[in-house]
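Q: Joint fold for the lines below.
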Amino acid sequence: MPRVLAKMGRNLVGALMLGAAALAVTPMASTPARAAGEAIPLPATQFSFEGLFGTFDRASLQRGFQVYKEVCSACHGMRQLFYRNLLEIGLTEAQVRNIAAQFEVQDGPNDLGEMFERPARISDHFRRPFPNDQAARAANNGALPPDLSVIVKARAGGADYIHALLTGYTDPPEGFTLMDGMNYNKYFPGHQIAMPNVLNPGQVEYADGTEATVDQMARDVTTFLAWAAEPELEQRRQMGVKIILFLIVMGGLTYAVKRRIWADVKH
Amino acid sequence: MAIGLHQSDFKNPVVRWIDSRMPIFTMMQKEYGTFPTPRNFNYFWNFGALAMINLMIMIATGIFLSMHYTAHTSMAFDSVERIMRDVNFGWLLRYVHMNGASMFFIVVYIHIWRGLWYGSYKAPRELLWILGVVIFLLMMATAFMGYVLPWGQMSFWGATVITNLFSAIPIVGENIVIWLWGGFSVDNPTLSRFFSLHYLLPFVIVGVVFLHVAALHITGSNNPLGIDPKGPQDTIPFHPYYTIKDSVGMVVYFIVFAFLVFFAPNYLGHPDNYIPANPLVTPAHIVPEWYFLPFYAILRAVPDKLGGVVLMFASIAILFILPWLDTSSVRSMRFRPVAKWFLVLWGLNFAVLMWVGAKPAEGHYVTIARFATAYYFLYFLVILPLLGRLERPLSLPESIAKPVLRGGGPLPAGAAAKPMEKA
Amino acid sequence: MAEAMAPHPAPHGEAGDTRRDFLKLTAGAFAAVGVGAIAWPFIDSMNPARDVLALSSTEADLAPVAVGQAITVSWRGKPVFIKRRTEEEIRAARAVPLSELRDPQTDQSRVIRDPWLVVIGVCTHLGCIPLGQKPTDPHGDFGGWFCPCHGSHYDTSGRIRLGPAPANLAVPEYAFTSDTQIRIG
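A: Joint structure:
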């Protein structure tokens, strides 16, 4: 074993493997903790943005925004987003201006020292459904609807979990005591969730004619939320491919130079 | 020493002018150019240079991130998200900084492992090793405070738990914790001071790294055989041999780093840190960053608050006296047929501690953590001191050049003719 | 091998080994490109961020501004003076021969609609904010604005008439989106 280790150290592959091994050990160490306590297996959903080279399906993003706007936004804010961000999901500037103008946001104080309402501009944040957390709790039976800006990054299981949650409402199994005002969900830790099932077939009417099944709406809104959490994802992966290819060529060149330089040293 | 201009050997008039007044070029030439370095390094010897590069990357990205970050409880989380969304290449700077911390610990753990395996801590390199442990401690403090800055749930609760460790100190503990916090809980004063210190400490690390390198260049490097170079035939100049060999390792390191940053930036993080800090709700499982897990496991292995804290700090403090605990005069584990197996076991044990540190502190996990903690200390306190006396090491090679030249024939004349300035 | 045996000061001084030189050159060029590419994200991160750029235009409501009054709106961190000028002020601005001006510009070239003067309220001398927006302010010798820092006088067209400033108050890019609203930037 030590001889093997020493040999590994002597060649490049060894160093690479060590790095990889260190990386491999760590998630093994930390992943179980995330799900510890109650690991509910999630059904894996296929999304356009998965894998090393996935991108966001623009049509799905736009449908997902529609679901967010017409359903989720009644309770959930997305305070990190601006209306101008919607340009990135393929909407035109005129469309985004129109969307923004549908919302009244507070501005001010004006010259009289008063706050006033005005239609939102594209440089404004998404309007929040409640002025503060206390108001949100008061309106929701004590439960706080979380902000959805980075929800996909903030939940173990990511997009799979969000999609599973939205499609996971069922009747509680026999013998399960549901507390007052709570709802049963297969995938929520503890199974009791304050959020009721909000997606019913045909809940929204898609402009592109896509049938608004529960799964379709959940998939679209999850895609939208994944984009909202990681709007840099596509640029990041494109850049990553180029940089890693560059580094591989660079590595080959450097190794060749190293061999040349070391050619006259016996070792 | 005579006072007057330094006798510079450089031809370029500008370089020569500077060098005769401040011989910085002569110094660089001596320390990184012709510096005689054992000829038999393997790729484990890349990791010191990699750690240096990593430190530079962290400082550079950190400085630019701090131009956009706001150290206030009400704005910290949002300012990080603004960096991710609106600042040009902000996501890149942040992901490099975030994953750079993990890369730094991977590199430094391998660097420490190399020191353990080849006995780099032994005389005459004890002080070099101690300075390394100081750097490691400073890194841990810096990483911990940096993790608090995004002000997510793990930031907040990690800060709460770790600062509370100090409350275990008898009598003054509570007061120390309040002093650390600047209040009665982790809050805005805590965040601002952590930011201040997180910015300061890396520069302290740079200073200690300088001392670490200075000490290294007095004793010279250790090598895989653990025997001292006996003459010029055993060494080669640092440049170009090891500058190019370090460059190879550097590119490989960048590939691993780039893969993390561009394709799995949150893989080593915890989802809860994307939930803004909430002082009223504790996450179900508080887990430190992966690189702290072994020490976290030791902390939790002890059923006594003070005892756990003491043992955790002792697990690092023990490294300071390691040069005197290891009584064997043989450095490299290649020639220690018994000790090497105990060290391999120690390495696996460290991995076990890392794994169990992420598990809830209950049931079998506690038992495993206790055995692993016991072995961690047993290795340093009992096994190493005893083995130095009981173990019969293999016979050491005569010189570095001997086993290197197959057949052990006479040295080629050219090898000795290389420019070697024996320090 | 002969090369390794030859005693020479640099480990590589042998001429004619062009393949190695080419290799080194290519690797060096790659490294230089890499370092250059690394520098750009750092530099660019200091350029205006997207949220800053999104606020690079602002809208101003002109409806409440009476004749002779002025309002100040903030645009890109700077004050923009919007003045609804009186007939006399317009006439005064247009009566001045260009030869008398330090920075010759006609009043017509500085406005889109005659009564509305829109200028950036930053003195072209050293960046102070001139006085003259409020009726009680000093307006300088030419009935426009007066910079208290070093005594520059601007006329009713915002042109420099007296004092150290070299140029007229700048006119920002703006457009009327309706009769009572303009978008600046």
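Q: Anything notable?
A: Residues 1-20, 24-37 of chain A have pLDDT under 50 and may be disordered. Chain A touches chain C at residues 82, 84, 121-123, 246, 249-250, 253-254, 256-257, 260-261, 263-265 (CB under 8 Å).
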